[in-house]
Amino acid sequence: MDKLTNAQIAWRAAQDIDDGAYVNLGIGFPEMVAQYAPEGRTPVYHTENGVLGFGPAPAEGEEDWDLINAGKKPITLKPGAAFFHHADSFAMVRGGHLDVAILGAYQVAQNGDLANWRVGTKGVPAVGGAMDLVHGAGRVAVITDHVTKDGQPKLVEACTFPLTGVGCVTRVYTSLAVVDIEDGRFVLREKLAGLALEDLQAVTGARLHLDGPVADLIVPEAP
Amino acid sequence: MDKLTNAQIAWRAAQDIDDGAYVNLGIGFPEMVAQYAPEGRTPVYHTENGVLGFGPAPAEGEEDWDLINAGKKPITLKPGAAFFHHADSFAMVRGGHLDVAILGAYQVAQNGDLANWRVGTKGVPAVGGAMDLVHGAGRVAVITDHVTKDGQPKLVEACTFPLTGVGCVTRVYTSLAVVDIEDGRFVLREKLAGLALEDLQAVTGARLHLDGPVADLIVPEAP
Amino acid sequence: MDKRIASTAEAVAGIPDGATVMIGGFGGSGAPIELIHAMIDRYRATGSPARLTVINNNAGNGGIGIAAMIKAGMIAKMICSFPRSSNAEAFNTAYLAGEIALELVPQGTLAERIRAAGAGIPAFYTPTSYGTELAEGKPVAEFDGTSYVQERWLKADFALVKGELGDPMGNLTYRLAGRNFNPLMCMAAATTIAQVRQLVETGGIEPESVITPSIFVDAVVEVPAPQQEEQLVRDGVEY
Amino acid sequence: MDKRIASTAEAVAGIPDGATVMIGGFGGSGAPIELIHAMIDRYRATGSPARLTVINNNAGNGGIGIAAMIKAGMIAKMICSFPRSSNAEAFNTAYLAGEIALELVPQGTLAERIRAAGAGIPAFYTPTSYGTELAEGKPVAEFDGTSYVQERWLKADFALVKGELGDPMGNLTYRLAGRNFNPLMCMAAATTIAQVRQLVETGGIEPESVITPSIFVDAVVEVPAPQQEEQLVRDGVEY
């Protein structure tokens, strides 16, 4: 089955971010979204450890390790940046000030439940800001492959992995489709042009509902 | 009956404030305490509206009305001063960071209850920071005349005026005596030299207990 | 991103009747007098915004600012800690005549409720007001042997604040003790409008010196020589 | 008032066995490495402080800082949000061997619990962790139709923080994103010890630029060329 690359998924998610939006991108894959902000749009990126308005990584050798993001990667500042402490930083998150948070997922349920912090009970648990980030932002979106590495659905009726948050996700960008979560249901908005609805449904763990026409999910070949 | 002037009461209270102590002085009479800090001691004064380390009023004509205290009187800054917002300011109060708060009182009860914000139910009520200041400071002291203008006791068994806080006052400096509040009782520590215990008791609304010797309350004639 | 607005009139044009409006400042320090007066101008010209709930530490002084709003009849309710002061005749008169409602909140609780709204904390416990008439009807709980009162967040539709420097993105600094409630109110309102003494270019405020980060601000208007409430009151000005 | 201490050794000399110690920093930014290493030196020389509860966002990296404390066996319990990272072998090993306890707290909740301790707020409600295993056993309440978890303040006996500038009274500033948990921890500990890159005279920090006012700080020690945790980890340093 044809599917989008991570870069293409990130590109698609970036198209929905407005100019001037305040955005938190989760550590790892979601950070890629920043590379694809459309021409003329300048989102302002927030990182949990107390920076608003940061830019890409500095050149090798120019890192300042007091200037990092939540993933502990070195960053740079854009004009208009600000520093603040951790309580103010999570006030921005929890207090509803972010326009968008884009996160990764192990599983997303049709009611918006998200599981993205832990797959089992073994090893050392670590939650970071995951459970905070799912609350407060105007939109909480997920970017993810449509299925797991061994082909299991990641969009499910109910999460089986430990939850990060309840009923929090509003949109999912996958390698095959764009799906909204509305009234406890998955509503299909876009799918790859060559992909039949029944084939998409077959790799989705819960019913995909239709609400108006389904657009083609169109992305650049190499964004 | 001989009694201390307000200046003398304020002077006596100032003697118990250590060098470097962080102190909030309530609006009005308590502000007078700052004039009598003993030689060699430099308390740091806090005001609710977000200043730490302020000094006396500026010369007439040199007021800056963005630089005021909680009583909305103009102030000056000492070296090492800091500005902060109201939530941080009351974190200092409520969070136990102040060493001493010195407040006025309508009534103080033997269990430490304080009434100092309202005498009745008429007119416009206004509480300001009074109910916050009674919580958190290492010591909450009251300075007051021993009796009301019409001779009624201000140290009472139970407050009849609306309460500001419950069980919060630890020491009272009056025009006649210094009284600690311990285990729900008034414990007399100092009284004016010429004043008989029974005369003091007669103008006090609750039993004065003794716990060791009662010292003479000695203050300068014109502090 | 450009949150600059050309005039105070334009800045307050969207405040509807019945809105809840936080107004920064403590007494005259940090009070956005020009934004308040722009609201009054609009009310005199159009009858709106009316029936406002206003949140401020005080309830106006003399004949300007919030006092002038009260005299104009724009305010239905005040939420504040200290409505009584030497020149608070406007509020006193309206309150004693039953023309204005009052929710009296201890000053630290007022600050913390506003901060809680900004931080997404719907309720918290405080020792303040426990055992007093201001705690009546509020839930009480004991933690580690001490009793506390549960307080709710306090949100607003609009916040009007006064900054010293501002940039087009909305980053703000404050002057001296003019900070007070202003940074908290920026966090707690759906729409925050800031008047600043000087608009600098984006990047003109050091990132370490920003007091209110731009995410909390929606509109910035430059008022280069702001009036000082205390001076206006002393001068007996009536707006 | 002079809160200056001559050496990091002297600064940490009073931390007893069994103490709860907050340590500022997020990863390596704003981490008071020299104060931590002074604690380790003392532990190696005297066997104290032992059985510590340490509060930090992470649980140490490589072979220095908190990781070195863990390897030395000084820590009985970590309270943190993210103990797992690329170089967190010290914690991983001790945890999986059952030699160290872990209280896992969502990062924003950790920050808010520490702030609450500093602000005298014994408990608050947050949406974070509602419906998850990290909320198990905690009180839940509904406000305005949404469910929230009740969280308690988090206090400490000591806080070790890293500032940029400090003055003899204890006023502090921070460098870049080195601010993070440091100002909050200053508020929440009975005794706060700050290492600063530069000690300036009292009055040498502009009152409007102070990030942590002196009231929250008990001791200041100058460490003019502080080490950077991230660099030490990359260099493979073992303390």
Any descriptors?
heterotetramer; A: 223 residues; alpha/beta; ten-stranded mixed β-sheet; three-stranded mixed β-sheet; 13% helix; C: 239 residues; Glutaconate Coenzyme A-transferase; seven-stranded parallel β-sheet; three-stranded antiparallel β-sheet; 3-oxoadipate CoA-transferase (chains C, D); 3-oxoacid_CoA-transf_A (chains C, D); CoA-transferase activity (chains C, D); transferase (chains C, D); NagB/RpiA_transferase-like (chains C, D)
Name of the CATH superfamily of chain C: Glutaconate Coenzyme A-transferase
Q: What kind of sheet is the major sheet of chain C?
A: 7 strands, parallel
Shape of chain C: globular
Largest sheet of chain A: 10 strands, mixed
Computed structural class of chain A = alpha/beta
CATH-defined topology of chain C: Glutaconate Coenzyme A-transferase
Contiguous uncertain segments of 5+ residues of chain A: none
Class inferred from helices and paired strands of chain C: alpha/beta
SSE pattern of chain A: HEEEEHEEEHEEEEEHE
Name the CATH class of chain C.
Alpha Beta
Mean pLDDT of chain C: 97
CATH architecture annotation name of chain C:
3-Layer(aba) Sandwich
Shape of chain A: globular
Q: How would you describe the oligomerization state of the chains in this entry?
A: heterotetramer
Name the strands of the widest sheet of chain A in spatial order.
4-3-2-1-5-8-10-11-12-13
Protein name (chains C, D): 3-oxoadipate CoA-transferase
InterPro entries (chains C, D): 3-oxoacid_CoA-transf_A, CoA_trans_fam_I, CoA_transf_BS, NagB/RpiA_transferase-like
GO molecular function (chains C, D): CoA-transferase activity
Pfam families (chains C, D): CoA_trans
